[in-house]
Amino acid sequence: MSEAQDLLFTALADPTRRAIFERLCRRSEQTVGALTAEAGVSQPAVSKHLGVLKRAGLVSDRPQGRQTHYSARLEALSPLVDWTQQMSGFWESRFDDLEDLLKRMDQ
Amino acid sequence: MSEAQDLLFTALADPTRRAIFERLCRRSEQTVGALTAEAGVSQPAVSKHLGVLKRAGLVSDRPQGRQTHYSARLEALSPLVDWTQQMSGFWESRFDDLEDLLKRMDQ
DNA sequence: CATATTCATAACCGAAGAGTTATTGAATTA
DNA sequence: TAATTCAATAACTCTTCGGTTATGAATATG
Description:
Chains A, B: InterPro entries: ArsR-like_HTH (IPR011991), HTH_ArsR_DNA-bd_dom (IPR001845), WH-like_DNA-bd_sf (IPR036388), WH_DNA-bd_sf (IPR036390). Chains A, B: This is DNA-binding transcriptional ArsR family regulator. Chains A, B: Keywords: DNA-binding. Two copies of one chain form a homodimer. With 107 residues, chain A is an alpha+beta fold. Chain A is built from six helices and three strands; from the N terminus they run ααβααββαα. In chain A, strands 1-3-2 form a three-stranded antiparallel beta sheet. In chain A, helix 1 (3-13) runs antiparallel to helix 4 (43-55) and helix 2 (15-26) crosses helix 4. The longest helix of chain A is centred in the last third of the chain and has 15 residues, at 78-92. The radius of gyration of chain A is 20 Å and the shape is elongated. The first copy, chain A, starts with a helix and ends with a helix. Chain A binds chain B through residues 1, 6, 9-10, 12-13, 15, 18-19, 21-22, 25-29, 72, 74, 77, 80-81, 84, 87-88, 90-91, 94, 96, 99-100, 103, and chain B through 1, 6, 9-10, 12-13, 15, 18-19, 21-22, 25-29, 72, 74, 77, 80-81, 84, 87-88, 90-91, 94, 96, 99-100, 103. The structure holds a DNA duplex (30 and 30 nucleotides).
């Protein structure tokens, strides 16, 4: 439902993009050039990925002269953690035995 | 990198599919028909989504007569939790001040 | 000032993916 | 046995998306 949540899941779905984000989690600020050097795709491709990550809130950019420094915004992952905990919560709060019993009686 | 991890992220990226998984986390076993009734898409579409979720390990199926019961496998989410913790770990273990200092000295 | 570098954007291409309808096979039910 | 229901698969369409090359705008450098 949530638009922001959707952007987050979508942004993390692509392996190349996830790898870029992982690199930014390991080392702090990195330029587009540095990221391109290790991404295995062209510079425009990297720029596009960074755009998607930015719209999802996963990275922030700091233009400096002719280069742009990107860094990871770890806080952006919290909706992911929240969602996981919510799913676990649903799971655990089910009265499985009772439900299953009623279901079998219903058949 | 990890193939299983990739399947997981990909499976959760689509909103319709994520909604199906969420429903299965709330209520236990549900048939394809029950899921279709609330999915907002056709039965074949739901079956395809369930196939993707199953390949990602997120659901298991139990054929019974002419209907198939699906249920969520919550354990399948653990790689997601692991990944998130790993990212946080990378982040926290960085010597940010030192790195930034060296980086500025390098320029 | 002229040249080179860095990044973003535009324009395009091919593959993948999410949806549809039609169909089939298997299992109930009348 | 005949008719019906349930779910999976096939075949197809249309859009999205990840990649490319080409270009442009801004900044740095000789």
